[in-house]
């Protein structure tokens, strides 16, 4: 693409060199620079991309976009100075790939919990309704029937535009995307044209990155602040910060709730481990999904689909055919009659929600055993809170390793244990090895007991000292339950 075309709608402070040059590729990692590429120098938290301008030129970059022009300007290289290189990258990427987000119905879902479930449910609903779509989620990326392993909840903006462009080429009409706080803060959604934005909830998470809850809240809110007047913003007003998301948005505002009056109102009429009978806006339907948190997820998916212009009866018919999202309240039953639930719950709120949902369904004649841990090199403040919740709401809580990363698993476990209240000391134990912890839960259980394995959900690895070792909770349960039933 000609540089002149690439710079459309981009405010440039200064340009030195040939504006008529051809650009083969856009990169923001100097190691990926190739002949005739445009290198974007971004000031990151760890390193400054300006330090790698020369190495990108050595690899073939012919255009440099930066915030500070280098003192030594090379011949035959075009230099472009902008105010914010990170934000500019988004618009550049959109322009380079033909602004694909404007040719699709792009729908973004943000919040602490439920993003993956809602985005995946939407992808499945629209498939049942007869539409081909793109899904960008924590679990996987899907373009029509092609599944691509996921690397980030919200990939970098170049990768997003590549996938959106491919979806356009393959005649997709919709794209459903998880929008993480990291992605918003790092401008990975910049230059994208969202038709609908949904908010699930906001609770204690990612404070290792955002430092304060106020910062985290502000970052989530920015997603809605940047919507245009043609977009639709849908928020959960049962969440105390639900209305905060809509305060400065130009978008059309819609609400959903279970506890208060809203544009989209839901009610749980019956529930068990096989599913729920729900009422949305006066219409009843059955779903095989369980748990109150899933009522919220389904209600947001319903609201988004209604706002996309579909008939309520068609939507509810499609929703009644939905299957559980991988690693989200995923259920298994052993030959011995033990009931397993595998879930990604890794925040205090998510863990409490799933335990409350299980306790609401179970008759109390069965025991509830919870196996969980907390990730290393992440938010320390949530660890004692999760210890408190698990020991209070389970018959037995087994504290184990999650992804310890570079931390000592014993230290993480001690921090979780510090939240256990004295009256519940007899209701927990610690087993650092995750496989052994699951094994102990099965050994301790009897027919009809419920074992919740929380924290990793869909993940098929355990990260220890920077190395990802294969570990899948579901695989481990299937293997151990069979071995122990022999």
From TrEMBL:
UniProt keyword annotation of Cell division present: yes
Catalytic activity annotation: UDP-N-acetyl-alpha-D-muramoyl-L-alanyl-D-glutamate + meso-2,6-diaminopimelate + ATP = UDP-N-acetyl-alpha-D-muramoyl-L-alanyl-gamma-D-glutamyl-meso-2,6-diaminopimelate + ADP + phosphate + H(+)
Naturally occurring in which organism (per UniProt): Kaistella jeonii
Limits of the Mur ligase central domain: 109-304
Residues reported in the UniProt entry to bind UDP-N-acetyl-alpha-D-muramoyl-L-alanyl-D-glutamate: 30, 153-154, 180, 186, 188
Record PTM: Carboxylation is probably crucial for Mg(2+) binding and, consequently, for the gamma-phosphate positioning of ATP.
Record-annotated Mur ligase N-terminal catalytic domain positions: 24-97
One GO BP: cell division
Name of the protein this chain belongs to: UDP-N-acetylmuramoyl-L-alanyl-D-glutamate--2,6-diaminopimelate ligase
Predominant cellular place of this UniProt entry's protein: cytoplasm
Cell compartments where the protein resides: Cytoplasm
EC number(s) per entry: 6.3.2.13
Required co-factors: Mg(2+)
HAMAP family referenced in this protein's UniProt entry, alphabetically: MurE
Record domain Mur ligase C-terminal: where: 327-457
Record: residues binding meso-2,6-diaminopimelate: 378, 402-405, 455, 459
GO annotation, cellular component aspect: cytoplasm
Pathway linked to the protein: Cell wall biogenesis; peptidoglycan biosynthesis
Position of sequence motif Meso-diaminopimelate recognition motif: 402-405
Family (UniProt): Belongs to the MurCDEF family. MurE subfamily.
Binding-site positions, ATP: 111-117
Any one GO MF annotation of this record: UDP-N-acetylmuramoylalanyl-D-glutamate-2,6-diaminopimelate ligase activity
Function summary: Catalyzes the addition of meso-diaminopimelic acid to the nucleotide precursor UDP-N-acetylmuramoyl-L-alanyl-D-glutamate (UMAG) in the biosynthesis of bacterial cell-wall peptidoglycan.
Keywords recorded for this protein, A-Z: ATP-binding, Cell cycle, Cell division, Cell shape, Cell wall biogenesis/degradation, Cytoplasm, Ligase, Magnesium, Nucleotide-binding, Peptidoglycan synthesis
N6-carboxylysine modified-residue sites: 220
């Amino acid at each position: 693409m000609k540089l002149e075309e690439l710079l459309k709608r981009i405010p440039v402070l200064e340009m030195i060199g040939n504006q008529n040059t051809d650009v083969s590729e856009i990169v923001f990692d100097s190691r990926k620079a190739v002949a005739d590429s445009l290198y974007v120098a971004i000031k990151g938290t760890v390193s400054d991309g300006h330090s790698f301008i020369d190495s990108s030129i050595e690899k073939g970059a012919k255009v440099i976009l930066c915030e500070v022009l280098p003192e030594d300007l090379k011949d035959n290289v075009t230099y472009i100075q902008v105010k914010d290189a990170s934000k500019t990258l988004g618009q550049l990427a959109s322009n380079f790939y033909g602004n694909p987000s404007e040719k699709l119905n792009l729908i973004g879902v943000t919040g602490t919990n439920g993003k993956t479930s809602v985005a995946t449910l939407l992808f499945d609903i629209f498939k049942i309704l007869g539409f081909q779509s793109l899904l960008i989620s924590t679990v996987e990326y899907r373009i029509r029937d092609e599944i691509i392993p996921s690397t980030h909840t919200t990939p970098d903006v170049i990768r997003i535009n590549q996938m959106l462009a491919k979806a356009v080429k393959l005649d997709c009409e919709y794209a459903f995307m998880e929008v993480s706080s990291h992605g918003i803060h790092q401008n990975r959604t910049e230059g994208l044209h969202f038709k609908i934005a949904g908010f699930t909830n906001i609770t204690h998470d990612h404070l290792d990155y955002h430092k304060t809850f106020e910062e985290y809240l502000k970052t989530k809110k920015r997603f809605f602040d940047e919507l245009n007047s043609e977009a639709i913003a849908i928020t959960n007003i049962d969440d105390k910060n639900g209305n905060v998301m809509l305060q400065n948005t130009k978008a059309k505002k819609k609400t959903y709730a279970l506890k208060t009056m809203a544009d989209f109102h839901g009610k749980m009429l019956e529930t068990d481990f096989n599913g729920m009978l729900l009422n949305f806006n006066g219409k009843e339907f059955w779903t095989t999904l369980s748990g109150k948190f899933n009522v919220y997820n389904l209600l947001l998916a319903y609201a988004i689909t209604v706002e996309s212009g579909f008939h309520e009866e068609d939507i509810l018919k499609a929703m009644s055919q939905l299957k559980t999202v991988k690693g989200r309240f995923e259920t298994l039953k052993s030959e011995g009659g033990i009931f397993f639930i595998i879930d990604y719950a890794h925040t205090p709120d998510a863990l409490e929600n799933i335990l409350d949902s299980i306790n609401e369904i179970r008759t109390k004649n069965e025991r509830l055993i919870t196996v969980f841990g907390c990730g290393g090199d992440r938010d320390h403040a949530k660890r004692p809170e999760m210890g408190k919740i698990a020991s209070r709401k389970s018959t037995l809580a087994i504290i184990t390793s999650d992804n310890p990363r570079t931390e000592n698993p014993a230290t993480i476990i001690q921090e979780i244990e510090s939240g256990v209240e004295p009256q519940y000391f007899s209701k927990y134990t610690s087993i650092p090895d995750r496989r052994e912890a699951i094994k102990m839960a099965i050994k301790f259980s009897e027919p009809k007991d419920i074992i919740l394995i929380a924290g990793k959900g869909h993940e098929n690895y355990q990260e220890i000292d920077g190395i990802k070792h294969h570990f899948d909770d579901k695989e481990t349960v299937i293997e151990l339950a069979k071995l122990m039933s022999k």
